[in-house]
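BUG: 3D viewer hangs when loading the predicted structure for this chain

Environment: internal workstation, default settings.
Expected: structure renders.
Actual: progress bar stalls at 90%.

Input used:
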Amino acid sequence: MTALIAAGAAIGGGALTGVFTLAAAKRQAAAAWAAGERQAAAAWEAGRQQAAAAWDAGQLQATAQLDVARRTLTEQTLANQRAVRRAAYVTYLSRTDGAQRALAAWQSAIGTTEETPRRQEYDAAVSAVAETLNVVRLEGPDAERAGPARSA
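Structure tokens produced before the viewer hung:
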């Protein structure tokens, strides 16, 4: 009978130890699962934050590049506009000087046989000035494009 009690105690003790071991293993598994979930959530959040930071940095860089491109284009446009205006002004001044010389030549030739050809040269020079003045008005700043002010 003692052997039977000892065998029963051993079986009972082994079963009880198995139950406790199983319960401990379940707790360990649940704790490991929870720790794994926390690690996965933390990794997900870190990745999300990195992606958001990378997106923001990309947006800032793209905005900066667009700003540089706009400024460069504006500067190039203004430089081209200045070059066209300068050419128009230089041509206008050159033609006005030519018209002044033609006027002086015509005035000097009044009463001579050269009067008519000099008058024709002067008329042609005045026409050239008028043509270049139209270019200056077209290419010039808004005040020039409007033409001379008219009084009421």
